[in-house]
Amino acid sequence: MKVNKRDLKIFALGIFSLFIFQSIYDWKQIKKDIISGWNAGYRAE
């Protein structure tokens, strides 16, 4: 089986679209996690 550039593009587009869909669907939790990660990183310095 040969992997083409087209196959890789479709795979990358699928992963990206799943990431976008999950981010929109669970926006409250994503926002909460981003803020807590930012605060934890800011306190580490």
Overall description:
By secondary structure, the protein is mainly α. The protein has one domain. The chain has helices at 5-25, 27-44.
| Strand count | 0
Number of helical regions: 2
Tally of distinct domains: 1
Please report which band the strand proportion falls in: under 5%, 5-15%, 15-25%, 25-35%, 35-45% or over 45%.
under 5%
Distance between the termini: 49 Å
Radius of gyration in whole Å, from Cα? Answer: 16 Å
Q: What class do helices, strands and sheet pairing give?
A: mainly alpha
The helix-strand sequence is HH
- Fraction of helical residues: over 70%
Key terms:
45 residues, mainly alpha, elongated
How would you summarize what this structure contains?
With 45 residues, the chain is an all-alpha fold. The protein contains two helices and no strands.
Would you spell out the secondary-structure blueprint of this structure?
Layout lengths: L4 H21 L1 H18 L1
